[in-house]
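WARN no homologs supplied; continuing
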Amino acid sequence: MRYLFHWLGRNRSHQGAASPVLRFAHELQGDPAPEQDRLSADGAPPPLDFTPWTIARLQAISQEVLERPSKASLRAAQSARHCLSRFWLSAPVDALETYFAGPIGAVYRQLLSGALPALPLEPAEALWQRQLADVLQQGLDHHGSINVLLALLPYLDREAMQLHDPLAYVPAWLVPLYSERCDPALGSQPREALRQLPPVSAPPSAALAPLPELAPITGDAGMALIGDADFQSRLNGLINLYGLEPSDAEICSDLSRGRRQLAQIWLDVETEQLESLYRTPFGQLTDNLIRSNFAREPLSQDERAMRQQLAEVAADLRHPRALNALIAALLYYPIEQVSLPADPALLPPWLSESLRQHGAQPATSD
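OK structure emitted
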């Protein structure tokens, strides 16, 4: 791997919870004002705004956010979700099964199978979700309630909602999807009660790469080293000695062990606390090691394998420790091999600015 940060914007597969690396803060493009989208008290769907779209385009958007998640692809997927939600509200009740079994239903299920329903909602989306839920709470026996259920599901994470006695109200063609998204216990119902759905072509989700164990001191014992002045003083001393005598084998061996422990602590700390920790003397110690150019020293076979594992985790937006692994990997990559992503949103500003100060340059090509 050549450019650690450049790769961070590639080979992404988003699943589950929001990535600790990317923080999306934007408004939906073309999202109607709340007054336009507010459902009436009797559950009647609002008029459908005319927004040109095609099933092929929705499918491409759904595929892109799975394979190449980015700020732009997420925004497009959120807009597509709203488009589909409004489509189900406006669809004729007696045509729902036909639509669901066709191409539009396949795109809809593909979107549900991705990470988008689990992500935090923008304020306008949260309002839209509440309005749909309020209508659904009036009862599934109301005309159009299945339209509302289909419109609401893309805004709910798995098992976030369960209906009372769903088999009495949810049509057989929708029960398998409802069971998968809301009530897995329904999967134990007799197979003849459930109609099989057309298969959805979605890329298989790869297993999350495991975090390597870098040092013998982990967990709470490792966290205690953050405030251990002796540990930090010794490691800073080794960094200074290495600067004076970089060819000394004993200094290099000791510093290598210290680096592993330092990286292990960055793997173990809670992701939400990374910025706070980086602004402490412990973060300064990390910067000192990065600036020491010790990463240019040859790595053992074990260290090369470990660095590869760190890079794989850092490159996976689904991994809850992606940013932790990224900081740990910085200790093993010479700064000239670190390329900042073209999209600044891929890195938190505090880390991006620090890397610029160390000498990392923006990526110039794919």
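Confidence is low (pLDDT under 50) at residues 1-41, 43-52, 190-206.
OK
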